[in-house]
Amino acid sequence: MAGSTRLAIALSALAYILAGLPFWWKLTEVYRVPLPYREVEGFVTKQSSSSAARVHCQLQIVFFSKEETPDRDAKWSDRLEVVLRATREWSSSGFCEIEVAVTLDAKGLCLHKRGGDRAKPLWECGRVLDSLHSQDSTSIDESLKNYIGEDRAGKYTILVLLDGELSQGGGAEAVVGKYRHAWVVFPPSLLGNDEQLTRIISETAGVLLAGGKPATAVAKTMPLAADGSAILSFSLLNADPENWIFNWDFDSVESQYLSPVVDALAPVARLSVESQVLYYTPAAARSQWNADIRSHVIESKDLSFFVNANEWHLDTSAAAAGRSKVLHFAIYVPPVEECPLRIKLSSGRITSSASIDGFTSPGWGGVVIWNPPGCLVADNSTLRQRLNVNDLKTTMEVVVAQLRTLFGLPPVPPRRKAPKLSILCNQRTGFAEWELDLLLRRRVIADVNSTASTLASLLKLVESLPKMVIQQEIGVQVTTSLEAAEKAMDAGNASYQVIGNFSATAKAWAEEAFFHPSIMSLLHFPKEHQFAMYTPFFVPVLLHTVISVVKETMRYARKSSRK
Amino acid sequence: MVLQGRRSLALWGGMTLAAIARLLLLMSGASARLSRSVEIATPVTSLVRLEEGFWLKKLGLSPYAGSVYHGSPLLLEIIGPLGANSPILFLLSDFATALLIILIGKRLSAARDHYTHWNIGITHSMLFLTGETLDIGEIAALLYLFNPFTVFVCVGGSTSSFESFVVCLALYASLEGNAPLAAFAWVMASHFAMYPLVLLIPVTSRTFDLATHILCVFFLKIASALCCGPDKPRSKIFRLKSSESLKSSTNVQWQKLWSFILWSAVWSSCVLGLCNRILRHDGGLGEMLRETYGFILTVKDLTPNIGVYWYFFTEVFDFYRSFFLMVFHGNIFCMIAPLSICFYHRPIFLSFILMAVVSTLKSYPSVGDAALYLGLMGLFTHELSDFKYAFLLLNSYICVAALGPVMFNLWIWRGTGNANFYFATALAYAFVQTILIVESVNSMLRFERGLKLTIKTTLSSSKKDN
C-alpha cells in the first residue's frame, strides 16, 4: 500500500523508543534504603529531654577514726544525713548519675547512710589502716590506694580522717590524689562545726567528680576526629637557621615523656605521635624590645597572628588528610636577634623569666617558644645543637599542660586556700585517674549529642532530597550508630570502657553515614540537573520521531482515502 | 582487448603498489610509532595488548589478568605465536579482504546484468554508468587497499584488519549462497568484535505486507543476502511489469535461512567450546564474556579515543552511568529496524550503512572500522553517483585524521592543550560520519525514486504505443 513503508519506518523508530521506557524506569530507579526515622526521632527527643546522658558514678564518703568518737550515735546519724544532702548539689555536675553512701567507721561504731541503689555493697568497717604519720601526700596517696582496694572507673572515695595529729596547723585540709580517691584531714576538735565539714567535703567531691567546675562550663567538644582519634604533630621550628640550628632526639623524648601520656589517654582518645624539624619558619607577629626585662616581648593580642600559615608547613604526614584530627605542637626557636622572646599577657603582666613560654589555640594545638639558654649573654651565632631528653624536659611539661588545656582541663591542678584543698599531680602521665574518668564522661556525652544531631540532620537532608540514592550501606551505618548510641545512653552500671566504646562507635558510624561518598556527590543535585541530563539528547530525538510519525500517519491517511 | 589490458594493469599494478607501500612502512619501523596511536590501536584491537595476553597465557596466568587484553582467546592462539611477524598476517588479510570485495562486486554486477535481461524496460545505461574501465568490485578493492586508514591499521598492529576480513568473508559467502561458510564467518566476526552481531538484519518477505515485515525485522542481514540474493531494486518495481518475473526474482529461499541458523548454532558452540578449552585453567567462558563483551558494553576503559563515549562517561554521574550506557549502545540498535524496512532488498548496502553506524557509535572505535565501510562504499559507485558533499566530506576526513593526532599530542604530551581540544576532533569525526551515512541513504533513496519514475514513464509510453 502506498506510503506504508515510510509509516512503518517512523513507527519502528517510535516503537524502539517506547521499548526503551521500561529500561529507563528500571535503570534510573532511585534506590532508597528505608531509614529508621521514628527511632532516630525518639532517640533525639530522649537525648535532649534528659538534658544530658548520665553515666553512673559512685561516691562513698567515709569518716574514719581509730579511736572512739566523742559524739553519740544520734548526733553522727544527723551529721551523715547533712553530708549526704550537701553532696546532692553535685549530682548535676560531672555528667554523673551519682549514688552517695556515707559511712562512719570508728572504733566500735559503724553507721551507714545512703541514697540511691540499695544493692551496692557498703564500706567494710573495722579494717586496720597503717599509720599515716610522717608521710608526705604522695605516699599517703599510695597507702590509701592499697587500703581502699577496689579501684575502677566511676567509683570514688573520700576518706575523712578524724585525726588531729595529721593536720598541720590544726585546720581542716583536703587532698585529691592521683587515683580515684581524696582524703580530708579533719581534727576531731572541729567536729562541732558542721558547716565547715560539709563545705570541705562537698568541695572535694566537686573536684573529684567534675574537676571543680559546674558541668555547663566545660560542655565543649573534644579535639578529636569522628573515630575518636587524633594525631599529635610535633614540629621543631628553626625560625632562622642562619645563626643557630637545633635538632632534637625526638624518639627518646617520645618514649620518655609522651608515650605514658598517650597510653594514659587511651580510654579517652586514640592518639598517635609524629614529628618533624622545619627551617626558615619566621613567626608572623612582630615583637618589641623591652629594656626593663631585657627581652623581646610580644603582645597577647598579636598572638593570633603568630602562627605563620604560609611558612609553617606543619602537616607532618599524608595520614593527616581527610577527616582526621591533627593537634599541632610547634616548638618555636626564635632567631638570634629576637632572643629571648616573651609573651605579654592581656593583663599587662609579662610571663616569668623562664626560658619557655607558650600559648594554646583551642582545637588547633599549642605553640611553645623555646629560647636557647643564655642567648643574650653568650655569642651563639653559629650554634648547632641536638636537643636531648633533658633539654626538652620543661618543654614537654609545657606541652602536657597545653594538652590538658586542649582537652578542657586546667593546665596545672589548682590549689585552694579556703577551704584548704590541694590536688596531686600525676608526675608520669600528667593526668590523674579521676581526670581521665571525667574526660571519658565528657566524651561520651559529646559523642551521644553529636550522634543525635548528626543523625537528625542526615535524615532531614535525606527527606529534603527525594531523588537522592540512599545505599544499603548507609542504612546499616545509621542503624548501627543508633543502636550503639542507645546502648551508651542506657548502659547504666556498665564499665566506663564499654560505654566509651559504644559512644565512640555511635559517633563514628553516624559521621561515616553523613559523609558517605554517595551522598556527598549528590548533595548539589538540583532538579534542574535532571533537565540538563535529559534534554540535550532526548528532546531532539523524540521531537523528530514524533513529528515524523504524525507526518507519515497523515500522509498515509491522505493516500489511502484518495484511493 | 586494450580496455581489458588496461584494466588488469590498473588492478594488479594498484595491488602491487599497495603491497609495496605497506612493506616500506613496515621496514621503516613505523609500526612502533603507529601502535601507540589511539586512533589505530584500541583497547580491544591493540596488538601490544594481545602480545601481553599471550605472555600471560604462556606464564600460566589468565590472559585477561590485569585487564590488559580484551580480545578473543582464539586470536591469542592464532596471532600470539607469530610475535613480530604478525603484520605479515595482517597484510595477507588485507589482500584477502580486497579479493573478497572484488568477488562481492562481481556478484553485484552480475545481479544487475540479470535484471536487465528481464527486459522490464530498464536499459543497461539506466542502471550502470557505461564506458568504465574497472568493475565496481575492483574500484572498491583499490579504494580499500589505498585508503591510508587501512594502510596504517595494517602496519600499526591492530587486529581490526583481521576482523574486516572475516566480515567481508561473511558478506561474500552469503552472496554465494553458502550457508555454512556465511554462518562460520558471521560467528567468528561477532566473536572477535561483537558489533558484527548487528549484521542481524531483516529479510524481506515475498509479498510486501506490513505485518510480515515487522515479523521479519529480527532476521539476519547476512541471511537476507543468503535467502534473497544480492542487492536489487525494490520488488514493487518488478510488480509494475508483470507477476511472472516477480515470482522468479523475489523468491525467498527459506531453507537457506534455516540452514544458516542451524550452522550458526553449530559454529557458535564450536567457538565457545574451543574458547572454553583454551581458558579451562583460568576463568573459563564467564571471564571471557566479562572481559570481551562486558568490557565493550560497560566502557570500563576511558582512555581517550576517536569515539564519543570516553568524554561523556568521565563526566556523567555514577547514578546515570548504566542508563546512558544503555542509551549509547541503544543508538546502534535503534537504526536496525528502520533501515531494514527501508533497504530490505539491498543487504550489502544495508551492511555498509550499519558498519558506518557502528563505527560512529561504538565504544572503542578505530580508523580500521572507517577503512572497511569506506572500501565497501566503492561498491555503490553507480547508486551513489549523485552523492552530495563528497568534496566537503573528503576534506573533513583528511582534516580530522590530521588534527586528531596533533590535538592528542598537544593535550597529552605537551600539556598545552586540554581534553576539549581532542574531543572536538572526535565530535567532528562523528559528525562527518553521520553526514556520510545520511547522505548515502538519501542518494540511495533518490536513485530508487529515479528508477521507479523511469519505469513508470517507459511503461506508460509502451502502453500508449500499444
Automatic annotation (TrEMBL), chain B:
The chain crosses the membrane at residues 88-105, 210-229, 257-279, 319-341, 348-367, 387-412, 419-438. GO terms for biological process: attachment of GPI anchor to protein; GPI anchor biosynthetic process. InterPro entries: PIG-U. Pathway: Glycolipid biosynthesis; glycosylphosphatidylinositol-anchor biosynthesis. Coiled coil: none annotated. Keywords: Endoplasmic reticulum, GPI-anchor biosynthesis, Membrane, Transmembrane, Transmembrane helix. Its main location: endoplasmic reticulum. It holds the Pfam family PIG-U. It is a multi-pass membrane protein. It is found in: Endoplasmic reticulum membrane. GO terms for cellular component: GPI-anchor transamidase complex. Belongs to the PIGU family. This is GPI transamidase subunit PIG-U.
